[in-house]
Specification:
366 residues; mainly alpha; 3 domains; signal
């Protein structure tokens, strides 16, 4: 890197790049070390021999090994055999993948046979059976899934023998760190479920006791309180429609206090005025009803719903009119609407003047 580049951008950026390159180079190695510890390996920092179907070349006859290679080509036909070698996956990777699949084939078959649904078909087994059928049709042989299981057993025995110093305890059936960790997690989950069950039982008993012993007047009072509509707090709305709703339902022009809150009030007031100008339709805000009793609360809720319906319509109309001028996305916040309005006044002063004049005429006519 050039000295001028480092001096102009600061040494901290070079340090960040160094950490990034170190992370890229060491993350895979660290992940492999953690996986080895969980699997019960004795020395995670030491390498482990990778299984490969080539390990069977000395154990199988030439005919059987040829059948295995043909099965590999049929199973991985989508990543092998391209005329351009750049598109082919390395044979070492394919051989190691197939060896690992064969080594775990018996476990896959056992899990499939114990599945809850009798129609469950593993994608792995489906592709394997398809490749076996194509290989038999191609060579005229009689390879079966049992044959593949035998090959997997030979590979597993050879791999355990080569890596005996690393996986000797695992091969002997001793408990690994991964199994003990999973067992502890399952135990904690069972304990949490039991505690939740006890809490639910206590809540049900408390609710039943309260419903029997609570006076009738208190229950009626609770029902009337629940019937009262929830009023959103006077805060900056997340949409233009919410901004308009908060302006009228929370009386922001007289309830907001403090310098910081007054700035929010100014933004809300400007947004409401801009929405009225861009709406270009007569606006009638009905008088707010009282909320003394349950009947008045229902009337208030109806008034609030009418305000919200008007606010949604104005929100849509405002964004459509702005989009016709600047082709930008919809605006959601009051501050963004003010900035967009200022840009519109600069770019299209004649159109803005016409909109304001039309709004004033409608306001004068009532």
């Amino acid at each position: 890197m050039a000295i001028q580049w480092i001096s102009t951008r600061g040494a901290w950026l070079l340090e960040s790049l160094t950490k990034a390159f170190a992370y890229i180079g060491t993350t895979t190695k660290e992940d492999q070390s953690v996986a080895k510890v969980l699997a019960g390996y004795q020395a995670p920092d030491l390498p482990v021999a990778t299984p490969s179907i080539r390990d069977l070349q000395q154990r199988l006859s030439v005919l059987e090994f040829g059948q295995l290679v043909t099965l590999r080509d049929e199973l991985y036909r989508h990543v092998l055999g391209f005329q351009d070698a750049r598109f082919n996956v390395s044979l070492d990777v394919v051989d190691a993948t197939l060896a690992s699949l064969l080594m775990h084939l018996e476990a896959v078959i056992d899990s499939t046979s114990t599945a809850s649904s009798s129609t469950f078909v593993s994608r792995y087994l489906y592709e394997l059976e398809r490749a076996i059928a194509d290989t038999n049709a191609r060579l005229g042989c009689c390879i079966t899934v049992s044959t593949c299981c035998d090959w997997g057993a030979h590979l597993r025995g050879h791999w355990q023998a080569v890596n005996h110093a690393q996986v000797g305890s695992v091969a002997a059936g001793r408990e690994t760190l991964l199994s003990s960790t999973l067992e502890n997690m399952l135990t904690q989950l069972v304990s949490i479920n039991e505690r939740l069950g006890r809490l639910e039982d206590a809540h049900v008993q408390l609710s039943a006791f309260t419903s029997h012993d609570q006076p009738v007047q208190a229950q009626l009072s609770r029902l009337s309180t629940a019937a009262e509509p929830l009023i959103p707090p006077p805060a900056t709305a997340t949409t233009l429609a919410g901004c308009l709703l908060n302006w009228y339902t929370n009386h922001i022009w007289q309830t907001v206090k403090g310098k910081k809150e007054q700035n929010k009030r100014a933004e809300a007031k400007a947004a409401v005025n801009i929405m009225m100008i861009l709406y270009q339709k007569p606006i009638a805000i009905p008088q707010e009803p009282s909320r003394c009793d349950v009947a008045d609360a229902a009337t208030y809720q109806t008034w609030k719903d009418s305000i919200w319906t008007l606010a949604v319509a104005m929100d849509s109309a405002v964004n459509e009119r702005l989009h016709a001028f600047d082709k930008k996305k919809s605006t959601r916040k009051a501050a963004s609407l003010r900035k967009r309005w200022k840009l519109l006044k600069t770019a299209h002063p004649e159109a803005v003047g016409s909109l304001i004049a039309q709004f004033l005429r409608m306001k004068a006519n009532g």
